[in-house]
TrEMBL record:
Residues 419-516 form the HTH araC/xylS-type domain. PANTHER family: HISTIDINE KINASE-RELATED, TRANSCRIPTIONAL REGULATORY PROTEIN HPTR. The modification 4-aspartylphosphate is found at D55. Pfam families: GGDEF_2, HTH_18, Response_reg. Keywords: Cytoplasm, DNA-binding, Phosphoprotein, Transcription, Transcription regulation, Two-component regulatory system. Residues 3-120 form the Response regulatory domain. The keyword Protein transport does not apply. This is Two-component system response regulator YesN. It comes from the Bacteria. Gene3D superfamilies: 3.40.50.2300, Homeodomain-like.
Amino acid sequence: MMKVVIVDDEPKLRQGLQTLIPWDSLGLTVTATAANGQEALAVIDQERPDIAIVDIRMPLMDGLQLMQSVSSSGLELQVIILSGYADFEYAKQAIKYGVAGYLLKPVDIKEMIHTLTRVRERIEEERLKKGPRSIEGINQEWLIQSLLVPQDTTEDPAKLRSMAQAARLIWSSYEVVAVFLRGPEATHPDALQQLADALKPDIERRGTGAVTVIPPYVILLLQEPLRGMQRREQLYRLLRNTLGNFRFVAATGGAVPVPEELNISFIKAQEALKQAFFSEKGRLLGPYPSRYPLPELPRLPGGSPEEMMEEFISRLYYSLEAGNQTMIRPLLDEAAAFFVMQEASEGFVKESFFFLSNAVIHKLTAGSRKEWKGTEEASRFLKGIFEYEHLADLLEETHSFLLALAEDAEPEGKERELKIMINIIQRHYADNLKLDTLAGMLNYSTAYLGQLFKNKTGEYFNTYLDKVRIRKAKELLEQGMKVYEVAERVGYTSVNYFHSKFKKYEGRSPSDFKNP
């Protein structure tokens, strides 16, 4: 991108221009500001900008004196003058120094955008006319940025090829890696450039590519494709070691054969970064999905999303109440898979987990005999759901929090009796369990206990038992056991009956599940 400095003694104007102008889309970036001509001289000497927006009236050194100094130093700088109506005659003197634009205050944003676009195009044309000798150093970086974010999609390929050749950018292949910083440190205006400078010794000085900055990304342009997992892991380790304590996520857009297609690789890298929440941690993302592994749902659940949410809440709650901790993580994974299937957006998944966790927390604490003192802790946990950067972290922390919460909640009355029932089913699913047997044990009528079980779990007793058996059967089939062995192990005396139950709940036969 071309560099711009803003020189004006009014802080509000400097801030306003930085905020209201869409610099990135114009192919420009504001690298510094100054309050007067003396400050500007130092800034210009350090930054070597392409464009300066200069107020004509300033203390210590005015805009005209600044232009005289710049002109005498031989710097190639396009200047856009700002002035009030009373300064018109004074501003005429600046014309002999070749001002690129003249705008009256208060600044009209549309007029400023038009002027900046025209000046940028003029600079591009002049650079192209000067040929290879002018396209060196910073101009190579400008060309890379222009190819990554093209302003003119109808640009003549032959012209682009000529510019790339002049800038020594004719390589056998090109691959864009975009690095996005996370956390409060990343908002520091100099952070991106500092990190880009830190990466240059390993990328540019070793002749493996180039490094540039297109906010909010640090961009690596690599000469060789990242073929194979080993090279991708090596690059990720380099990034991790170089960035130190900075939190980041990085993605590649894949290799392209010609410089004119750099923007295609860049776009794919950005798309991969947008899916970082759903991807595996600690890896270079893209250009193909590397999503966090979730269980496959063999068929669309029969209920509505609202009904399925209630089912997940009930299953989690009663599993926690029954002390069946091994069921919690699989249930959370299943819920995550369902939420992702409904709408593959990070916000939707986080909102769904907030609702799910909040409902389970209320159910658990409502049945507790003890006075619960974890309100603030629960509030922090629920608020933190929206701060997780990876689905893996969200699942892990939700799992840990629910298990810790369940230890502090002791059910009583009918809740305790239901816990006993579910615990018995989980531990003795292979036995010939019958509702009337449990009813007699708990001193209830069979009909009443059956209705109570249905109201609390959302399932009839036999359906719940079947689902537990089928869930265990899937685990045994995956371990390589034969179908008839699994049927007997989970409590079905008839293989045909087991076959029909399995197909009812899973939508396919045990054999098809075992050998997909």
